[in-house]
Design a protein that fits this description.
Blueprint (H helix, E strand, L loop, with lengths): L1 H19 L1 E9 L4 H18 L3 E6 L11 E8 L2 H13 L1 H10 L6 E9 L9
Antiparallel strand pairs: 1-3, 1-4, 2-3
Amino acid sequence: MIRRLLLLTLLIATAAFAENRVFELRVYTANEGKLEALKARFRDHTTAIFKKHHMEVVGYWTPQSSDPKSKDTFIYILAHPSREAADKNWKEFQADPEWTKVKTESEKEGVLAKKVESTFMDATSFSPMK
């Protein structure tokens, strides 16, 4: 009986957490010749720093090779517990000394991205990501 009650409590807490989650779509346009360096920075450093700041990576994408955007576009989605948490997490991420060092080192030969677009999204009631 206690196990069932604990399981039910866990399921309710998970549902409540999921209901408030917000997703963030980010699209980077890399400077010419910098896409591979941008992807390497995410692969080797940024993902771990995101995790440290409670930013959940849903996935990373690039356009298919037949798309002209494949030469300079990097796309990813983050999940945050709420919009307020997203704002807080981004502020802490930007101020993180490890991130500052990684960004500075990766941009010694020039800034990697010339444009970053961010869109915050709410899952629909029928979304499997909710």
